[in-house]
């Protein structure tokens, strides 16, 4: 069959072109996806931060910290950046460093997702790997020590994401996007907490914009940010191990409530979200969604809940989304997945029943 051809020029835009010249210009304007709604008109929305370049929210703060360091004279042309990272901050810093002509050294440990390490290397970062302490947890203290030593020996700039105020400031735009994209106030914002930057930075700016949002911080069971019992966990990026001092960017006064979610529920929820929506979310986002899903039933009618999805599940195909990996660690639990599936179905059913009710009343 003959294929109809049209002159190419017919499809070119008439006005200005929509082309960026740097990958970092693609940061932001990430989409909101409705995961579930209830018969009482409440909604659970996912702010999909994996749509940023480097596939995570953290590139927002990486850029903010580097630009601030340039303004403050901490970074000069041809400079060197060193930072301990579980991977997402590192990938963000690697991108900003390559665009702006800096060398970047990431101090990592065996707890990091392999694909994050590969991504940093692909963007030209040098990786320094510290030995684990024999536990399944991250070696945050050791990573920080080595990064400090490298900075002292080489004069490299260390952003210190746990205490750098430009980490939190990097999420002002995210708050602005939520404010702009929703026709209503956000009643609940749920986010996994590591440095605290994404949740606290977003909440602070939302409230400055007039929101009355209630903020829920989520950490892995075993993390000590909100005073829980220390222990091992496999969620990466969020949480803080026993011996790691919580940094100044966790503003406890901005967080209304804290929750702990174990790896089994976090990963089961991420896997159910994948099957329901076709979007793969990371394990810490799974934890935050878990909290939001369970909370939704108890909220006043018409509530809007937003979960900050820090990163993409594609970074965890060989862990969270690998049944063998989960099974080997005792983290594969069909019943946990079924509980989430049933919860989502109950919400779907409540929408159906509410619609039936409306129709009956109208009849
Ligand atoms: C996957 C993941 N989730 C959650 C977080 C926590 O974000 P924040 O450090 O802004 O608290 C991070 C931080 O690196 C992360 O990488």
TrEMBL record:
Its cofactor is pyridoxal 5'-phosphate. It is an enzyme of class 2 (transferase). Residues 24-311 form the Tryptophan synthase beta chain-like PALP domain. One of its GO terms (molecular function) is transferase activity. Keywords: Pyridoxal phosphate, Transferase. Its EC number is 2.5.1.-. Coiled coil: none annotated. It comes from the Bacteria. The keyword Signal does not apply. PANTHER family: CYSTATHIONINE BETA-SYNTHASE. This is Cysteine synthase family protein. It comes from Nocardia rhamnosiphila.
């Amino acid at each position: 069959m003959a294929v109809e051809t049209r002159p190419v020029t017919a499809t070119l835009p008439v006005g200005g072109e929509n082309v960026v010249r740097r990958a970092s210009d693609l940061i932001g304007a990430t989409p909101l996806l409705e995961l579930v709604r209830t018969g009482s008109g409440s909604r659970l929305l996912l702010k999909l931060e994996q749509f940023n370049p480097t596939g995570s929210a953290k590139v927002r703060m990486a850029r903010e910290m580097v630009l601030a360091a340039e303004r403050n004279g901490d970074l000069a042309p041809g400079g060197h950046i060193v930072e301990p990272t579980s991977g997402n901050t590192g990938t963000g810093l690697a991108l900003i460093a390559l665009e702006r002509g800096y060398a970047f050294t990431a101090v990592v440990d065996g707890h990091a997702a392999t694909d994050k390490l590969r991504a940093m290397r692909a963007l030209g970062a040098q990786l320094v790997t510290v030995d684990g302490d024999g536990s399944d947890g991250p070696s945050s203290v050791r990573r920080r020590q080595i990064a400090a030593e490298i900075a002292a020996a080489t004069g490299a700039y260390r952003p210190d994401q746990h205490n750098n105020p430009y980490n939190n400031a990097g999420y002002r735009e995210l708050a602005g996007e939520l404010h702009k994209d929703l026709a209503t106030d956000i009643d609940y914002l749920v986010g996994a907490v590591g440095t605290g930057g994404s949740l606290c930075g977003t909440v602070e700016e939302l409230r400055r914009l007039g929101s009355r949002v209630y903020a829920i911080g989520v950490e892995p069971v075993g993390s000590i940010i909100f005073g829980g019992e220390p222990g091992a966990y496999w969620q990466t990026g969020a949480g803080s191990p026993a011996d790691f001092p919580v940094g100044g960017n966790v503003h406890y006064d901005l967080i209304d409530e804290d929750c702990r979610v174990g790896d089994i529920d976090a990963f089961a929820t991420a896997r159910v979200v994948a099957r329901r929506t076709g979007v793969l979310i990371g394990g810490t986002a799974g934890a935050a969604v878990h909290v939001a899903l369970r909370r939704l039933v108890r909220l006043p009618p018409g509530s809007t809940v937003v979960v900050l999805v820090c990163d993409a599940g594609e970074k965890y195909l060989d862990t969270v989304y690998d049944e063998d990996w989960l099974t080997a660690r005792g983290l594969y639990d069909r019943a946990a997945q079924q509980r989430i599936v049933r919860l989502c179905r109950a919400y779907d059913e409540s929408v159906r029943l509410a619609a039936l009710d409306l129709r009956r009343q109208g009849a």
